[in-house]
Amino acid sequence: MSVGFSVGDRVARVTLDRPDRMNAVDAATEQELETIWREIEARDDISCVVLTGAGERAFCAGADLKGGSGSSGLDYWAASRVNGFGGLAFRRSLDVPVIARVNGFALGGGFEVVLGCDIVIAAETARFGLPEARVGRMPLDGGMVLLQRKIAFNRAMAVMLTGRQFSAAEMAGFGVVNEVVPAAELDAAVDRWVADIVACAPLSLRAIKQTVNRTGHLSPAEAQALRTPALVKALQSEDALEGVAAFQQKRAPVWRGR
After folding, report:
1. Residue 69: what pLDDT?
2. CA distance 12 to 4
3. How distant, in Å, are the alpha carbons of 6, 88, 187, 226 from that of 102?
4. Which residues lie closer than 8 Å to 222 by C-beta, 6 or more apart?
5. Could you give the residue numbers annotated as active site?
6. Which among 17, 28, 164, 222 has the fewest CB atoms less than 10 Å away?
7. CA distances from 243 to 78, 128, 239 (A)
8. What is the chain's pLDDT, residue by residue, as a tens digit (258 residues)?
9. Separation of alpha carbons 71 and 64, rounded Å
10. Under 8 Å CB-to-CB from 26, ≥6 apart: which residues?
11. Residue 71: CB atoms within 10 Å
């Protein structure tokens, strides 16, 4: 197995575990990730996902070109990856918040995976980039279509057209990274974000993310009128009543996920 996966206290932890390859993703790893995302989608005991890479050097260095990801750029592009790199870059069926714990290099597909996460916490030493053009390739699995939608056009083009590596501080300035911390404080920072997310009602989290995922292409009025299944379920839930009662009684809510 090249991906670690565990669940505890409503938190799923997914770890790319190929440190000898800078956690680059080969075909087998891609399939493992797809299986994990589907399992998370099918479970109701998860409120948050933390995605990271094993070791201290890399979050993910992208596609493992020596590990079965396709020697031909055309063949690689032609292969079906409807959810983008790692099954996550532009996945819209995963209604659980995902935090990227970026501990090192996030390059190529690794950066595309970061763009598919909801919150990004990075060590000061982390580096980001889309270096594909420097090796005669392109950021095919999300980079070209996601980055321009997330940050200012000229900044997105600077990343893609130079192949440069950018620091965590620069990416925070671009709006891609939420928080930058010393490497020794990375876990503590991630845990703070996890605690805040898990403190929220599970059904509310799903309703928010599902609505965001399914309405980005709509006008505000159209989006407001869309009754997503998760939104309706959350509004009719016991937790919706519990949240108000807890507020009135000045106590912490007890979420039941129903």
Report:
1. 47
2. 10
3. 18, 15, 10, 34
4. 215
5. 112, 132
6. 222
7. 48, 39, 6
8. 899 999 999 999 999 999 999 999 999 999 999 999 999 999 999 999 999 999 999 999 999 877 554 455 555 555 666 899 999 998 999 999 999 999 999 999 999 999 999 999 999 999 999 999 998 888 888 888 899 999 999 999 999 999 999 999 999 999 999 999 999 999 999 999 999 999 999 999 999 999 998 888 888 888 888 888 888 888 888 888 888 888 888 888 988 888
9. 10
10. 2, 18, 63, 64, 67, 68, 69
11. 9
| CA 128/CA 108 separation, integer angstroms | 8
SS (H, E, C) the chain: CCEEEEEECCEEEEEECCHHHCCCECHHHHHHHHHHHHHHHHCCCCCEEEEEECCCCEEECCECCCCCCCCCHHHHHHCCCCCCHHHCCCCCCCCCCEEEEECCEEECHHHHHHHCCCEEEEECCCEEECCHHHHCCCCCCCHHHHHHHHCCHHHHHHHHHHCCEEEHHHHHHHCCCCEEECHHHHHHHHHHHHHHHHCCCHHHHHHHHHHHHHHCCCCHHHHHHCCCHHHHHHHCCHHHHHHHHHHHCCCCCCCCCC
Tell me the angle at which helices 202-215 and 238-248 cross, rounded to the nearest 10 degrees. 120
- Residue 256 token pair: 């039941």
Q: State the Cα–Cα distance between residues 142 and 156, nearest whole angstrom.
A: 12
Find how far residue 221's CA is from the centre of its chain.
27
Among 62, 153, 69, smallest CA distance to 112 is for 62
How far apart (Å, rounded) are the C-alpha atoms in residues 33 and 36?
5
